[in-house]
Amino acid sequence: MSGILEKFIQITSEFSRIQKLPQPYKDKDDNFPFPRQLRTGNDRYITISKSIDQLIADVARTMRNNSSLKSHFAASDYLALVKQAFGPALAKVDINAPTKNAQPLLAEVEKKVSEMADRALNDGGREYAFGCTLFTYDDFPEFEIGPARFEPRLVWLDRKTSDGCWVKVSDNGLIKKFEHQLSDGPISKTIKQRITQAWQGEILKPQEPSFENRYEDVVLKAIDRCPYVCSVKVPGAGGKSSKDKALLASRLALTTISLIWESSSKALDGINLHFDREMRNQYLLSFTPEGLILGSGTTSNMPHAPWTNRTELENFFQEFSLIFRISGEAINWLINPTQEHDKPKLLNVISQAMLWFHDGCREITDIKAIVCFASCMDVLASGGGQKDICKLINARLGLDESSPIHRDGLTVKEVINQIYDDGRTRFVHGPMKFGKNVWKNKLGNDWSETRGLAEWLARMCLINSMEWISANTGSDNPALLLTE
User: Fold this and answer.
1) Can you name the residues that pair with 150 across neighbouring β-strands?
2) Cα dihedral sign for 27, 29, 33, 37?
3) DSSP assignment of 12-36, as one string?
4) Of 35, 40, 38, 39, the residue nearest 23 (C-alpha)
5) Helix or strand run (H / E) with residue 297
6) Nearest residue to 234 via CA among 218, 222, 250, 219
7) Which of these, 423, 425, 482, 409, lies nearest to 452 by C-alpha position?
8) Could you tell me which of 264, 291, 241 has the C-alpha nearest to residue 69?
């Protein structure tokens, strides 16, 4: 406490100093283009110096590190809370007795931050919506994976015009809450009709600027031409933390769906959030030594997952229902780890392994993808490296380390050595080992075949580990994934 109190003493002393100088105050050596200010309420501000701004950031970092709510607020979220609390409190400081004001200022800031944090955590959370691509069909029935809900966009639009609205934005831009329901949903029927027309390819007639028109514009830009919407409900949290968790949940839910296909990376080439990627043309230009100009074109990614017979796809959803359930629980753990969970240790393992697998599938460079897939298996093997990955493969896939798994006769042990040591370890740690060059020119080699093997093994280990967790409901010991 004495450390943070000292920061408040410095803040009040510096604030007292600059208030006695011509306003608005600005440090001569401050590269920030405008005077630094804090809101005090009622559209008023106080000017602060660069030093005060930095000290407030120090205070915010200390308070967040000491808070039990750290997982709910990103560093920028907490800094915003602290600055919001500082403005009104600092404006009341007696500039003639700055040192005496430090302790009361600390108490008031802590009280205000606690109140705002509690309000954010108990406001019911937020539901994020992302346009996404999934299958060749645009009317696949809605389904859920943990907190992520997937719906055809017209189904989603119907829901958002009927799930209630109790708030209104006033003319001055402030949000006012009411005790009674104001409308059927956040999207009005008029806006719904215009959005539907736009999705049907019609050109909308311009309207006078209004908040409703702004909502229409936001929906059309966020969903765009995507046939599906992924909605994620995130518990109360800071703005950046909440958004980041929603995106992470969506990406891992899409990765879960991709496990249906033997090549998950190929499936994820067409399963995307509009927020992350949309299909576009890519053009390549090259010249031969003889002076010939060559051009070629490709697409950045596919518009949907590989075609699958509809009945077969529905059967896959039944077959992978347990995988979807365990993955959903892991995603729920990831966005709200402080909540009570039946098997937090295993869910921690699965969520982190899923994240590595997602990044491996999305990675452009083959050797970096191998690092991700090796890390996915390493997480499932409790971080035990090659030896324990072989144990994991034996326990979950029924293949001992001497089993051949390659057409050239390579065994599990040899393939894992190629993935983990030749690929992952040497790329992560560099070509030198004990002063000797152990990699030579391998960095530029073709790693695509090793990448394919690494993805196949990581996918199988991930699927079978989740099946084991589903079958062993009473266990929360990740080490048991390595046993038969």
Assistant:
1) 143, 230
2) negative
3) HHHHHHHHTSSSS---TT---SS-E
4) 35
5) strand 293-299
6) 250
7) 423
8) 241
Distance CA 480, CA 483 (A): 5
Amino acid letter, 475: S
Number of residues that this document lists for the chain: 484
Dist. CA 158–CA 419, nearest whole Å: 48
Q: What does DSSP say about strands 44-48 and 281-287: parallel, antiparallel, or unpaired?
A: unpaired
- 408 phi/psi in degrees, rounded to 5: -85, 5
In the chain, the amino acid numbered 107 is A
Burial of 23 per CB tally in 10 Å (0-12, 13-18, 19+): exposed
Nearest-5° angle of CA 403, CA 458, CA 421? 70
Q: Helix, strand or coil for residue 384?
A: coil
Residue keyed to tokens 């050596």: 29
Compute the CA torsion angle 132, 134, 139, 145 (nearest 10 deg).
-80
Strands 293-299 and 126-132: unpaired
Contact of 457 with 415, CB cutoff 8 Å:
yes
- State which amino acid sits at residue 466: M
DSSP tag of 261: S
Note whether 471 and 323 are within 8 A (CB): no
Q: At what angle do helices 344-362 and 448-471 cross, to 10 degrees?
A: 160
Read off the amino acid at residue 447.
W
Separation CA 422–CA 445 (nearest Å): 12
Q: Distance between CA 93 and CA 86 in Å, rounded? A: 11
Tens of pLDDT, residue by residue, the chain (484 residues): 468 999 999 999 999 888 888 877 888 788 888 888 899 887 788 888 899 999 999 999 999 998 888 888 899 999 999 999 999 999 888 888 777 888 999 999 999 999 998 888 887 788 999 999 999 999 999 999 999 999 999 999 999 998 877 777 766 556 777 777 777 788 889 899 999 999 999 998 888 777 777 888 999 999 999 999 999 999 888 889 999 999 999 999 999 999 999 999 999 999 999 999 887 888 989 998 988 898 888 888 889 999 999 999 999 999 999 999 999 999 999 998 878 888 999 999 999 999 999 999 999 999 999 999 999 999 999 999 999 999 999 999 999 999 888 888 889 999 999 999 888 988 998 888 888 888 777 888 889 999 999 999 999 999 999 999 999 988 999 999 999 7
